[in-house]
Amino acid sequence: MSFTSTYIAGAVGAGDTDRYCETQNMKVGALTLTATLTPGNGARKVTCTRTVDGNADTPGTLLVTGKNLAGQTITETLIPGAHTVLVTGTKYFSSITSVVGAGWVIDGNNDTIVVGMAAEHLVSETPGVLKGILITVAAASAINISDGTKTLMILPASMAIGYYEFNLSYTALRVEPQGATTISVIHSPSLPTSYA
Q: Considering the domain boundaries, does residue 196 fall inside one?
């Protein structure tokens, strides 16, 4: 069985509502990206939040294009919600290449939009094996390890620098340091969706 390594430096468990697109007017066309990579060398779901200014515009859609953990190009269409409602997609993106608005109709002032990422951080989105974790900087912070949303284990903050072998099966792997700990996760690579 082949394995790959995912390097994670520091806490990755927090979301960021404007990671990819900071506040800008909703429009028909490409939004300006402020970041393209998902932090932590993993993948996350994309979010969007709309802010209404005066009369609510007629909402359209956002077409998100990027890459998954297997390096495949993927897309997802998000439909922004009402004023300040956070909408979360269902696909995991390791990077974003574009966010394009369609169908917006302005009613007075421009509503604005931000595009960000959810907190859940995957290092593998297809079934495999967690071979082990190499801790290279120990910063007295726990490391959460989950299979999707089910907690498999929490490594305590007292873990010392070193390599820890697990050989643990999973269907989707989340590994999230809760502080400044630096690790390399040795695991099965994500498979292309056509082979998963």
A: no
Tell whether pTM > 0.85.
yes
Per DSSP bridges, beta strands 61-67 and 73-78 are antiparallel
Is residue 89 within 8 A of residue 47, CB to CB? The reply is: yes
In a domain, 61, yes or no: yes
In degrees and rounded to multiples of 5, residue 85 shows phi and psi of -85, 125
Q: What is the chain's pLDDT, residue by residue, as a tens digit (196 residues)?
A: 689 999 998 888 788 999 999 999 988 999 999 999 988 899 999 999 999 988 877 889 999 999 999 999 999 999 999 999 999 999 999 999 999 999 988 887 888 999 999 998 999 999 999 999 999 998 888 999 999 779 999 999 988 999 999 999 999 999 999 888 999 999 999 888 765 4
Of 89, 119, 149, the domain-final residue: 119
DSSP string, 77-123: EE---STT-EEEEEEEESEEEEEEEES-B-BSBPPEEEEEE-S--EE
Owning domain of residue 90: 14-119
Evaluate whether 98 touches 65 at the Cβ level (below 8 Å). yes
Tokens of 15: 């979301």
Six-digit token string for 53: 């200014």
Q: Residue 2 in contact with residue 32, Cβ under 8 Å?
A: no
Domain count, the chain: 2
